[in-house]
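Could you join me in thinking about how sequence relates to backbone shape in a protein? To get us started, please write out a protein record for me. Would you write everything just below, so we can both look at the same thing?
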Amino acid sequence: MTILEATLGLEIHIQINTKSKIFCKCSTKFGEKPNSNTCVICTSQPGTIPLLNKKAVEAIVKTGLALNFTINKQCIFARKQYFYPDIPKNYQITQLDPPICSNGKLIIISNKQKKIINMKRLHLEEDAGKLIHEVNNKKLNYSLLDLNRASIGLMELVTEPDFNSSEEVIEFLKEIKSIVEYLNVSECSMEEGKMRCDINVSVHPVEDKKLGTRVEIKNINSLSNIKDAIEYEIKRQKTIIVSNGKVIQETMLWDAKECVTKSMRFKEDTLDYRYFPEPDLVPLNLSNSFIRNLVKEIPELPKRIKLRFIKNYNLSEHLATYLISKKTIADYYEKALKTVKNPKIIAKTLANWISTELSAKLNSFKISIEDSPITCKNLAKLVSLIVSGSITRIIAKEIFEEMWKRSQPPEIIIKRKKIQQISDELTIIKMCEEAIIKNHNAVKEFISGKNKAMDAIIGFVMKKSKGLANPLVVNKILLNRLKKL
């Protein structure tokens, strides 16, 4: 029986985070009234001349450096003949050979295995406009054209066909998204179309070195849809091959409602685009000093931060991975640690509170961590009180809720609500003695060697004290009492 293998390659489009478009001064702000961020250049009026945005060049070079690309100091722009309504001038300004960045590498970990993904090129181009085929969920029998997106700067990253599964693709996209966000060169919002992915899928027998017929799935803008589209298309092609059919080279769309790929058009090749040098833009000549200055601007990247968190703060792999998942979360964590004298003491507990309690609140209110009503300094204060034993976790949760509602530091809430921990031994002794009497089975199990039974006895005391009894004192008194039984 012939074993079939899938081979995948990616073309990723990432909108560059500049205030103005790549070839004109129009705003790049998302969500504006259709065709309001436009001018004679980005609406393709005859006789207009593009003017290159320097910030866009800086952004792509920084990205190339971070992804281990070779930076080509001399390169040109090209016209790609593009006969679609979303580019009225019928060509797209892009790059062919050489691109600004070529031959990059990125290591991913998928199914606990390291894999090197080779990237062919990273080049600069302009985005197209947007065609609208339905309004208020009602399909139109015509299409509307919004050119607000036209001529926004894009980075296009093209990989080699180095992927063999949807899992590898998703891990790679997560890595790229994270690095680009840390560089602050793109917001990478897939929901807003600021990061989109074309997937080239082919299937062939494992022993055959020649790849199968390539099918391209266009413009998918969510990780879940990318995973579903890949898995569906691999299955579709395998079914065709097994039944002795022939896979046709074509461009497909992913229908997320029906969960199927649908034919869009026959796939174009490079020759179909009839590239030629862009006559209205001079060749790029990047100086050594220009590149050196950009190297200095590259921040600490997520993988290195993750290793540092694990080493310096003894965090688990899972916890460190969550903290570096977004730059804003990593920044919040580090800023919080800087507000205390000995950060290592609270580091692990703070990380847990950010990844659980704070994360749950942010998700339920659908806000990002930078908009959290609980500042990093105030959360560090709360965690410090927990770690020092000044308050219990039960009390901390109550205070946390108030901090979220009122944006106040914990000490003010403690004072206002008159929350004071019970540390008086005589008071705690009485509660511990009652706990021993009323938890006979748990006491019996503890004496027989089942240490876990102590939790039920401590729990009784904490409930009796409404969470105010000092847990260290409770534990000490209970152990002394139980040893005497």
Notes: Residues 343-365 form the longest helix (23 residues). The chain is about 40% helix and 20% strand.
